[in-house]
Write a structure and sequence with these properties.
The chain is α+β, with helices and mostly antiparallel strands. The chain is about 45% helix and about 10% strand. It has 15 helices and 13 strands. The strands form five sheets. Strands 3-5-4 form a three-stranded antiparallel beta sheet. It has a three-stranded antiparallel beta sheet with strand order 6-8-7. Strands 9-13-10 form a three-stranded antiparallel beta sheet. α2 (about 70-80) packs across α5 (about 150-160). The radius of gyration is 24 Å and the shape is globular. The chain starts with about 30 loop residues before the first helix and ends in a 7-residue tail after the last strand.
Length: about 475
């Protein structure tokens, strides 16, 4: 079978922005050259100096940006300019053109008003990327000038000639030589959940999702009732997905006590809290339980912000999958699409890295030309499609949602999903499959622009597609 190394992995059906600086400053060329601009850096949420294996750098010391494309943006800017002020000018233009944001989601459009505040955040990212690029010896800095190293020049050529996948794989090797972060994470995933190996959940239920309308949540008692119902749901999820029994009531009492100590909730249960603090209060719940799951249940030793950065970098590499949009689940799920082994005979796993002790990191990348793999993909695709059809009256369903189902079912990355879908779509066009597939660019009517921003469409046959319909020939429909 395609997933032999993923023993016991679940077959289920089933977002956080970095802190923004408050000070607005104008960036002069002199400040850019000296990197002396004052700014509020994204806050670390604590964490240990640990996770330092074999002399590697601690996980929390990773620079504060998500997109690996930033390296190409910087290298391309340094290729054309040497003066740091000119490099920054090119960097921000290329950053906008590629819709790279400061969070883990791309922007809806490349057009964005460059306010002083936004320029300040751009510069912070610029400095972070430079620092990490210097760490990997991709660029060198002398006084106020930057220049490419031979390795940096090779990476630019690689991106342009071989594409982004090969580019990110080389960056992965550079990151792992410095941090061993992905070995730590993947090992942690499998140790953290032995009930469904590698599968991590971070449930998130807003008051409305638990049937508390915002207009009705006005007093401390209302918040307490919401928190108690939330605890019940979290305990249910822990039991269902992790196979653990946890009593979270005392932890909930601590959280409520902190909310009172910070004057977000009145001491009296019947007293109303300031309605302008509603979003702050609900965010406190979300952040608290995210940290609780991460540290107390899964045993991650560094900060939440570092976990987010490493996880979403791993997603771009294709060795980890993370999503906040899995159909039918409220919150985030994270799981590996790779394994740690000394060796494997499976042709569906490709070794990306070998550690000093002989252990290798193998990514699950089944061959789309193999007929057994292709048949399994079609089967998963059809079954997932009809599951989504159960939630919708439309003949078309959201392709990104279907991608989530298939990726989890087969333990593959979004890139592998796209490769398989392109392969079978060509067979459909050639009338060589028993299923008919219709792919469209149009979004479903109920989808908002915000969802489009956070869920990239799938590239098929040279076009981005948002929705899909599948027609199965008689006798082949998934039951």
């Amino acid at each position: 079978m395609i997933c032999d190394l993923f023993d016991g992995f679940p077959h289920l059906l089933f977002g956080a922005r970095p802190e923004r600086g408050k000070r607005r400053v104008f960036l002069s060329a002199e400040q850019i050259r000296s990197q002396s601009v004052p700014m509020n850096q994204p806050e670390e949420h604590g964490g240990l100096d640990g996770c330092n294996m074999n002399g590697k750098l601690p996980l929390h010391s990773v620079k504060k940006f998500y997109f690996l494309e930033y390296f190409y943006v910087l290298l391309k800017s340094v290729e054309n300019h040497s003066d740091k002020a000119h490099v920054f000018d090119s960097f921000k233009n290329l950053k906008q053109a590629q819709r790279l944001g400061e969070s883990k989601y791309k922007k809806l459009t490349s057009e964005e008003e460059l306010t002083k505040h936004r320029l300040n955040r751009y510069f912070f990212t610029f400095v972070q990327v430079i620092d990490e690029a210097k760490q990997y010896e991709l660029v060198k800095e002398e006084n106020s000038s930057l220049r490419l190293t031979d390795q940096g020049k090779k990476l630019i050529s690689m991106y342009q000639e071989e594409g982004s996948v090969r580019f990110t794989r080389v960056l992965f090797e550079l990151m792992e030589r410095n941090y061993n972060a992905f070995r730590y994470l993947i090992d942690l995933f499998y140790r953290a959940n032995r009930y469904r190996p590698g599968f991590l959940i971070f449930p998130n239920y807003s008051p409305r999702q638990l049937h508390f309308e915002r207009s009705a949540v006005r007093t401390s008692r209302d918040i307490i009732e919401y928190s108690e119902k939330l605890v019940v749901r979290l305990q249910q999820d822990i039991k269902e997905f992790l196979g653990l029994e946890r009593d979270l009531r005392n932890e909930n009492k601590k959280l409520l006590s902190r909310l009172r100590e910070s004057n977000l909730l009145p001491q009296s249960n019947s007293a109303q809290f300031a309605q302008g603090k509603y979003n702050v209060i609900t965010k406190r719940f979300r952040d608290h339980w995210m940290n609780y799951f991460l540290k107390q249940i899964y045993g991650y030793e560094a900060s939440l912000s570092s976990f987010d950065i490493w996880t979403y970098r791993g997603k771009q590499i294709g060795i980890i999958h993370a999503t906040e949009f899995y159909p039918g689940f409220n919150g985030r799920i994270v799981y590996p699409t790779s394994v740690l082994r000394e060796s494997t005979k499976s042709k569906d796993f490709q070794r990306l890295y070998e550690y000093d002790d002989g252990v290798g990191l193998y990514v699950h990348e089944p061959d789309e030309e193999d007929s057994d793999n292709r048949d399994e993909f079609v089967d998963r695709l059809v079954k997932g499609y009809f599951k989504l059809r159960g939630f919708s009256r439309s003949y078309f369903v959201n392709l990104a949602a279907l991608r989530e189902i298939v990726c989890l079912d087969m333990k593959i990355s979004e890139h592998v999903f796209e490769t398989f879908l392109n392969s079978i779509y060509r067979l459909v066009l050639a009338s060589q499959l028993k299923v008919q597939i219709s792919l469209e660019v149009d979004k479903l009517p109920e989808e908002t622009q915000a969802m489009y921003l956070k869920q990239e469409p799938v590239m098929v046959d040279g076009k981005y597609r948002n929705i899909i319909a599948i027609d199965v020939t008689k006798g082949d429909k998934a039951k």
